[in-house]
Automatic annotation (TrEMBL):
Pathway: Glycan metabolism; L-arabinan degradation. It comes from Paenibacillus odorifer. The lineage of its organism: Bacteria, Bacillati, Bacillota, Bacilli, Bacillales. Pfam families: Glyco_hydro_43 (PF04616). This is Endo-alpha-(1->5)-L-arabinanase. Belongs to the glycosyl hydrolase 43 family.
Length: 322
């Protein structure tokens, strides 16, 4: 190749690389980047919040597990919320194993952090949702607020997997529930931060549905109900998937993309896992632009790990991430 030809080729290659870099950089933002996490990332059912510059993750585990990060990517495990059982736990869930606590939900309102959580046993509707509060997460001083809602084997719902959301008018709601009886919603009193009034079923799905997380997106005018469908907790054999439906009302009906009501099993899957991560679920939505969840690492023989991604919205108003 002549010298002039080699120079032209190099310029062409350089231009291509510059164009590729520009497109890739833009794409990494437009196509929902997954955060590069390090440190202790072993979790089930994570719930995420920021307090100042500190990132906090609460998750299923003994005493209610806590992790924090100063940069949002490198996580350190802190002390659990509980080191002994509150007296009321045994009254509602007599067969609970030790300090096993499930699926927490952290919510900030009026200068207080409200941490909701579940106690239960597998395969039973003998369950309860509890509440503990603090003015400062980093301060580490939590106050137990007792039971929020409970259920038993005769109940229509299973009182687990709480999630708190604010509607377009600032009213507060809690979604909760699981499996055959589906997902329910109830209004929350802003003074007690506990339910008031009736509970309404808004989603069901044969084969498993739980871990609801609702968010209102003012840019689209819809309420989005994210759920975990399938079965968790079996490592790489877990069949969990993250799915979503949407509604113009906080009380529904919520519809999947194909128009099926979520009360009739509708659900649009947005993450079914891949060759690296099995059984994604237990999701939590922070604001409208971050999704936090767990998935089972194939490379680590099914260890449950924390995953965080930027949540994006397509032109039709549906959420997605990579």
């Amino acid at each position: 190749m002549a010298k002039k030809g080699r120079q032209g080729y190099r310029l062409l290659l350089l231009s291509f690389l510059m164009l590729f870099t520009t497109v890739f950089s833009a794409g990494s933002q437009a196509y929902a980047a997954t955060w590069n996490l390090t440190g202790d990332t072993n979790v089930h059912d994570p719930s995420y919040i920021k307090e100042g510059n500190t990132h906090w993750v609460f998750s299923t585990g003994s005493g209610l597990q806590v992790m924090f990060s100063n940069d949002g990517t490198n996580y350190i495990r802190s002390l659990p919320i509980y080191n002994s059982k509150p007296s009321w736990w045994s009254s509602y869930v007599p067969n609970q194993e030790g300090l096993d606590v499930w699926a927490p939900e952290i919510f900030y309102y009026n200068g207080t952090y409200y941490l909701y959580y579940s106690i239960s046993t597998f395969g039973s509707r003998v369950s309860a949702i509890g509440l503990v509060t603090t003015k400062s997460i980093s301060g580490g001083k939590w106050t137990d607020q007792g039971v929020v809602i409970s259920s038993n084997d005769a109940s229509n719902y299973n009182a687990i997997d709480p999630n708190i959301t604010a509607d377009a008018n600032g009213n507060l709601w809690m979604t909760f529930g699981s499996w055959s009886n589906g997902i329910y919603i109830t209004s929350i009193n802003k003074t007690t931060m506990k339910p008031t009034g009736n509970s309404y079923r808004i989603a069901t799905k044969s084969g498993g549905i739980e871990g609801s997380s609702m968010v209102y997106n003012p840019n689209t005018g819809y309420y989005y109900l994210f759920v975990s469908i399938g079965q968790c907790c079996s490592g790489v054999n877990s069949t969990y998937k993250i799915a979503v439906g949407r509604s113009t009302s906080v009380l529904g009906p919520f519809y999947a993309k194909d128009g099926t009501d979520m009360k009739n099993g509708g659900a649009t899957v947005i993450d079914s896992g891949n060759s690296f991560w099995a059984g994604p679920g237990g999701q939590d939505i922070y604001g409208t632009n971050v999704i936090v969840r767990h998935a089972y690492s194939v490379a680590e023989n099914g260890a449950p790990k924390l995953l965080i991604s930027d949540l994006e919205w397509d032109s039709a108003g549906w959420p997605y991430y990579n």
